[in-house]
């Protein structure tokens, strides 16, 4: 069926709640706004959002289903660092808007958006 036969649905997005600082960055809970669209299957109602500053030049952003485990690439395939604390000075920053949720990774020195 061509895409033009599908009903028009507006993506409702998520809202970030319960943001707390952690030893390595911050985390929060994303709640689906409204009913969602279900265009690609059932929308996940609650997501976890976590920002981990690995070092002054690297940040890891994880968005996962808050209620169900997910598969991740094993560390034997992709080695990862395990930060124990946020660096005193970081060359990158993660900025976010809570509602509707969005985030951006920015280089501190020139304000350029990296992601």
Structure description:
The protein has 115 residues and is an all-beta fold. It is 0% helix and 40% strand. The chain has strands at 14-21, 25-32, 46-55, 58-65, 92-97, 102-107. Strands 1-2-3-4 form a 4-stranded antiparallel sheet, with no helix packed on it. Strands 5-6 form a two-stranded antiparallel sheet. Strand 3 and strand 4 form a beta hairpin. It is globular, with a radius of gyration of 17 Å. The termini are far apart.
Please tag this protein with its features.
115 residues; mainly beta; four-stranded antiparallel sheet; two-stranded antiparallel ribbon; 0% helix; 40% strand
Q: How would you summarize this macromolecular structure in one to three sentences?
A:
By secondary structure, this protein is an all-beta fold.
Topology:
Elements: E1 14-21, E2 25-32, E3 46-55, E4 58-65, E5 92-97, E6 102-107
Antiparallel strand pairs: 1-2, 2-3, 3-4, 5-6
Alpha-carbon distance between the termini?
A: 34 Å
Please state the overall shape, judged from the principal axes of the Cα atoms.
globular
Fraction in beta strands: 35-45%
In which order are the strands of the major sheet placed? 1-2-3-4
Order of helices and strands: EEEEEE
What profile does the largest beta sheet have?
4 strands, antiparallel
Task: State the share of residues found in helices, binned by percent.
Answer: under 10%
Return residue spans where pLDDT drops below 50 for at least 5 consecutive residues.
none
- Give a count of the beta strands, DSSP E runs of length 2 or more: 6
Alpha carbon gyration radius: 17 Å
pLDDT average, as an integer? 90
- Class per helix and strand makeup: mainly beta
Q: How many separate helices?
A: 0
């Amino acid at each position: 069926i061509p895409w033009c036969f599908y009903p028009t649905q507006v993506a409702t997005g998520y809202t970030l709640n319960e943001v707390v600082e952690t030893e390595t960055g911050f985390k929060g809970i994303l709640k689906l706004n409204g009913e969602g669209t279900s265009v690609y299957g059932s929308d996940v109602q609650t997501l976890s959002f976590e920002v981990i500053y690995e070092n002054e030049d690297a940040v890891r952003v994880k968005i996962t289903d808050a209620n169900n485990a997910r598969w991740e690439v094993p560390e034997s395939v992709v080695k990862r660092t395990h930060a124990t604390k946020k660096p005193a000075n970081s060359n990158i920053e993660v900025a976010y808007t809570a509602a509707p949720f969005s985030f951006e990774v920015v280089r501190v020195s020139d304000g350029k958006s990296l992601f």
